[in-house]
Amino acid sequence: MKYFFLLVSLFITHLSLSQKIDSASIGNAIFNCIGNSEKLDSIEQKILPKTKENYLLKETYYYSISKARFLSGQLTEAFSKAEQGISLNESENKTFRSAKFYNIQASVYAYQKDYKKAIQVFKTSLEILENNQNYYTAAQVQNNIANIFFGLSDFESAYKYSKVSHDRLTEFNDTIHLPGVKGILAVTLLKLDSITEGKKNAEQALKLSKNYKNPVGLIVSNYSLGEVFIVEEQCDDAIVYFKTSLQLSEQFRQAHFVMLNKVGLLKAYLINKDYENAVEIGEQALSETIALKNENTLYAIHKNLGYAYDGLGKKEEAYQHIVSALETYIESSSTENKKAINDILIKYDTEKKEKNLIEVRLENVKSKHQLYRRTQLAIILGIVVVLLIISYYSYNRIQREKLKQIEREQESKRMMAAILAEEKERERISNELHDGMASSITGIKLKLEDLMAESKNNTFAPLVNQLQNLHNETRRISHNLMPLDLTSENWAQRLEEYCLENSSHRFKIEFINNLPQTSPLAPSQSILLYRSVQELIHNAQKHSGTNSCVVQLSKLNDELIISVEDEGNGFNPKDQKGQGLNSIRQRLFEINATLDIESRIGNGSLISIYLPLKS
């Protein structure tokens, strides 16, 4: 398995070795030569004599050169220099400083796929770090160990180390490593059948990865969500997440996750009966699994490829993959069964048609050995049972999807009816304000103006001005309550107009549109989003204690984000009395949107609406 080694950005600094050197100059000079073995040899000959008897300079030299050799692909040299660094610390009675050298050696073992030794050396580093209470770095080493166990399909051990790493990084409020660790934790939970908890961690990992722009976290969280949707039989969604993770894995050269995502896509395409894509992606996964020497996924790949080829009517290829899957399974179960299946397969003539081949060879096996007969019968029955189970679940899935579609349509109709009723009520109240209250205010104002004109007394002038302001405010409220004239694409423009119309010197509303183009929305979506933003702005005016707010539109990974931010009083999100946020959240749920609240007392508020957009 490939591990998450960070790409190192090197700042090239010229080092004159005739000058007095220090730790920083040694590191800069050596890392400037990464990738060039001749330069590393030359700089090594120049720097080592300069360290003389200075322990700290010599230790810095050994660490920098071993790390540079590793990043240059010189694994043997990297291991040797790390060993010299460990010896130096032992001679100085400072073994507590050797954890970083053990990490390099463990990384060499992992890169060479000697996972047993890699885990042993990582544990040595972990013991040193924990004995010296360096729990932050220890958490990162524990995640490295979890990654190795995950690659070996030892999910219980992977969960154990991943959970400790996750909890410690959470305590440190880490933003660099936590998204990726949370993603690994999510996948191990899924593999251990903790679906609900796994999905929760996967969603949190994706959110953190987006917030902190963490590529490793995005790879793992998208993969884990793909696995979640496979379990939930929502294969179209699973394909989207697997493809996203696959693209990032290829971009950042995470070979193990390239392979895992292709295995996931194979399962999703197969369930969707997209056999051509299943075969194409499955053959790619098989090649990469063999290249990575990861035998833990061979059984699943061969089995699913067999079903995919069978779906295309290619019986010979289907049979070969099913046999390979069974051979892989039996190899991992017992030596006796392995010998039996190998003897059977040797007798098969792969040039003949599948049906005749099976019948003839089964008869031969029956006559030679009773054990062969029972083994072959079990194989055939197993295939039949698996095919029947797949057919049964496929039929049930189709029926459930039909029921879900009917329920969605009915729910959509109910929601539209509620929206229309609400808009009708808004129209009634708007008309009463405009035709009733606004007209009465105008009448009172005119009478006062006539009285002032007759008496030639301006005593009532301030009152007339207040009535005029009240009239204007009543008309503005009436206008805001009027039913929306929204189309599928003008909702953003209408939202901007609302912000401009309601912005004043007393409360300024700034509108920022970062959308490259307006995404079309369904009428129910545009109306609910518009009304929700109206209420969030009203809450800011009423409760924030400040004189401005910012409304911003943006889009990330096919997700529309609308945020309302102010720098006012803030509040405790757990205590939302009087702010109507629970009501907004419930209404947004009807259109598959979510509400995220970030606020602390005295530090303002950022309230965001997330709406997934269909591709």
Q: What can you tell me about this protein's structure?
A:
- With 615 residues, the chain is mostly helical.
- It has a domain of 127 residues: 2-Layer Sandwich (Heat Shock Protein 90).
- Helices cover 70% and strands 6% of the residues.
- It contains 23 helices and 5 strands.
- Strands 1-2-3-5-4 form a 5-stranded mixed sheet, with helices on one face.
- Strand 2 and strand 3 form a beta hairpin.
- Helix 1 packs parallel to helix 3, helix 8 runs antiparallel to helix 9 and helix 19 crosses helix 22.
- The N terminus is likely disordered.
Head-to-tail CA distance between termini: 33 Å
Largest sheet at a glance?
Answer: 5 strands, mixed
Low-confidence stretches: 1-19, 333-355
- In the CATH hierarchy, the architecture of the domain at 486-612 is 2-Layer Sandwich
Cα radius of gyration in angstroms = 34 Å
Structural class: mainly alpha
What's the average pLDDT?
Answer: 79
Helix content: over 70%
Q: Total strand count, please?
A: 5
> What is the CATH H-level superfamily of the domain at 486-612?
Histidine kinase-like ATPase, C-terminal domain
